[in-house]
Amino acid sequence: MDKSTLLKVSNLKKTFIKKSGTFLKRRKTEVYAVNNINFEVNKGEILGIIGESGCGKTSTARMIMRLMKETKGEITFEGVNLCNLKESETNKIRKKMQMIFQDPYDTLNPGMKILDILMEPINAHEKGLTYEEKYQKVIEAIEAIELRPAQDFIHRFPHQLSGGQRQRIAIARAIILKPSFIAADEPTSMLDVSVRAGILNLLLDLRKKMG
After folding, report:
1. In terms of residue numbers, what domain contains 193?
2. Same domain, yes or no, for 103 and 204?
3. What is the pLDDT of residues 90-105, one digit of tens each?
4. CA distance 78 to 95
5. Three-class SS string for the chain?
6. Other C-beta atoms within 10 Å of 211: how many?
7. Are residues 205 and 103 in the same domain?
8. What is the pTM of this model?
9. Which residues, in sequence order, are CB contacts of 57 under 8 Å at separation 6+?
């Protein structure tokens, strides 16, 4: 693998078993969600996967992020085959790989304030930091997604934000650990047309600033 190659996906497949027929005569059919996909992503590169609904885009992203196990194939990240890692080893890699999900309504806990939502990944992966250091990271992440002043947002609940602001908080949660790879699963499809361009421009700016 070339030194600039961050992620390499080789012959990736994911199948599900579809059951049909009667109780006495059951049939099992193998259904392909992802069938033999190959691609590479270099450092600082944006790769878009385009396809109709149900073609396997989300399944591909979830397999890369180790939220779903592949049926066959290899996923190599920074020279490490993720498919061979144990759960404890995968948890260490997760700091470097984050995901922005499609629906900010579902991905932010409605019972938690924004401060606590953004503290979660820090508490999981950077336990040695003091509370003040963690708090400062939260403030910096919120300012990076252009919600200012950050102190006006940290004590709000998700329902007190607009859809675009919620998705920006989801982006802040993804970047707060300064990962080297982010999988964005249709991050603007649930938003009003008027705010989509702002989110896409934000992602481009973050790519320039963070690599």
Report:
1. 86-211
2. yes
3. 988 999 999 999 888 8
4. 13
5. CCCCEEEEEEEEEEEEEEEEECCCCEEEEEEEEEEEEEEEEECCCCCCCCCCCCCCHHHHHHHHCCCCCCCEEEEEECCEEHHHCCHHHHHHHHHHEEEECCCHHHHCCCCCCHHHHHHHHHHHHCCCCCHHHHHHHHHHHHHHCCCCCHHHCCCCCHHHCCHHHHHHHHHHHHHCCCCCEEEECCCCCCCCHHHHHHHHHHHHHHHHHHC
6. 9
7. yes
8. 0.89
9. 49, 51, 185, 186
Give the span between the Cα atoms of 98 and 104, in whole angstroms.
Answer: 15
Torsion of CA 149, 166, 175, 7, to 10 degrees: -160
Q: Judge if 76 and 100 occupy the same domain.
A: no
pLDDT confidence tier of residue 41, bands split at 50, 70 and 90? very high
Q: Token digits for 90?
A: 């995968």
For 43, the token pair is 């450092």
- The pLDDT assigned to 164 comes to 93
